[in-house]
Amino acid sequence: MNTHPYWRAFMAASVVPTLFTLVVLSGFIVARFVFQIPVALERVIVFPMALVPNLFGVWNMFYLWLGPQRHLPLGFHGALLPFILAPAGYALATCLGFLTLGHEGLVWFHAIAVPYPLFATGFLFALVVYYLVWKHFVGFFNQVLGIA
Questions:
Q1: Each residue of 114-147: pLDDT tens digit?
Q2: Buried b vs exposed e over 95-110: b needs ≥16 C-beta within 10 Å?
Q3: CA quadruple 114, 115, 117, 123: dihedral, nearest 10
Q4: Rounded-to-integer distance, Cα 1 and Cα 131, Å
């Protein structure tokens, strides 16, 4: 019987960002409609909601495909994913005109300036978060589905 390990690997990893995105989307909706905070959600949320869960799933399938010859633990494997997501997000944001490079930092929506040191700190924080999420949550779902 074929147990479809790659399909299970995709589902195990994609559930984590899908649930997180729903929480973030709920927070944005409450901020916009309850507290009347002007948040440009429509232009920003499409990339994470559409691409990130699928990339998590494909990245976990790749981890499973590597098999016993893999040299990295699951947490480190997941921490490599921001090195793919950040350039893809940057390319999409600049093509759509949301993000421009300034002399002192990144400028979002021609209004919000993020200095480069703050961006680098945020990227390092994202690496730590991705490591922990992959080690604990994706690893847990991999064990539950029997592919760990």
A1: 888 888 999 999 999 999 999 999 999 988 988 8
A2: eeebbeeeeeebeeee
A3: 20
A4: 34
